[in-house]
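[READ THE FOLD]
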Amino acid sequence: MKTITKIACRTVGTLGIGVALYDATRVANHFSKVESQKQQSKYLENAYFNSRTSDNMSYTSSAIGKKTFELRTNNPLPSIWGRIKGGCEGAMYSLGNHLFTIACSSLALLSKGTLAKVGAIGVGLKACYDIARNGFGLGKQNPMK
């Protein structure tokens, strides 16, 4: 019986960590895409404004502005920076939301005896709460009322 509870605690702990990491990667991917688009649009807006305004009436200044705009629009750095920034923000946001699950899962995985059982029970209760709240809508206010 002791071996079965040990396996069950480790399994529940692994599942809890897996769910938290899965959510973190999915949210990080979404935030990454959104932030990349924001950074790119902000960068292109500034580049376009700079290319369309001039201090003097010069053909060479206009040609330089157009060529610089072309070079700046092909620059991948704002998009890459936005992806990195958004990914980190999304991962931290999601891991912060799953803090209780991560703590209970870690307790179930790393401890022995009663503490492992408490961690596994905590993960189970959190899963039941999530199903009741997000699945069945218990305790949520209807936004239409």
About this structure: The chain is about 85% helix and 0% strand. The helical segments are 2-52, 59-73, 77-97, 99-110, 114-135. The CA atoms of residues 47 and 70 lie 9 Å apart. The first helix runs from residue 2 to 52.
